[in-house]
């Protein structure tokens, strides 16, 4: 076959270089860091977390629930951080594990968005709170979905 005259940016040729695993892992680590920081904030300083999210000061029971939620979010963030770590390699099984972990994060954030929507519809949340909390969850879900799409699973 004769050599092609097409430029390297031709739509007939594959992209020059896909995103490297290291770049994707840095993006995922940043997402994990956000979730870990938020979770630890809820766990260690629940009243401050309430104030940052524009929520009314919590009752004693709400503080405990906030700490439980913070522990779960921190654990998920820690899991994502560990799975994205280079020590797990970049083989097919690691990439599949990373995609599965990201899918769980996206699902959890999507459920949080729906919960905020229900809270807004029932009057449990005011619009500014919905904007901060629901909007934050939506942004995290979108970032997780973008990370999920960027993880390339190649054959070993």
Mean pLDDT level: 84
> Total domains, how many?
1
Q: Sheet with the most strands?
A: none
Q: What sort of overall outline do the alpha carbons produce when their principal axes are compared?
A: elongated
Helix/strand order: HHHHH
Which strand-content bin applies to the residues?
under 5%
Poorly predicted regions are none
Distance between the termini: 29 Å
| Number of helices, where a helix is a run of at least 4 consecutive DSSP H or I residues | 5
Task: Describe this protein's structure.
The chain is an all-alpha fold and 156 residues long. It has one domain. It is built from five helices and no strands. It has helices at residues 21-44, 46-52, 60-84, 92-122, 127-150. The protein is elongated. The protein starts with 20 loop residues before the first helix and ends in a 6-residue tail after the last helix.
């Amino acid at each position: 076959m004769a050599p092609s005259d097409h430029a390297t940016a031709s739509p007939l040729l594959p992209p020059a270089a896909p995103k490297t695993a290291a770049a994707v892992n840095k993006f995922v680590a940043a997402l994990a860091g956000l979730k870990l920081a938020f979770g630890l904030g809820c766990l260690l300083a629940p009243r401050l977390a309430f104030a940052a999210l524009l929520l009314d000061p919590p009752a004693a029971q709400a503080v405990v629930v906030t700490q439980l939620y913070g522990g779960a979010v921190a654990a998920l963030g820690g899991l994502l951080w560990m799975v994205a770590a280079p020590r797990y390699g970049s083989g097919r099984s690691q990439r599949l594990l990373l995609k599965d972990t990201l899918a769980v994060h996206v699902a959890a954030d999507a459920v949080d968005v729906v919960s905020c929507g229900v809270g807004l519809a029932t009057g449990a949340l005011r619009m500014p709170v919905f904007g901060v909390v629901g909007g934050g969850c939506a942004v995290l879900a979108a970032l997780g979905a973008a990370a999920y799409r960027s993880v390339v699973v190649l054959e070993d």
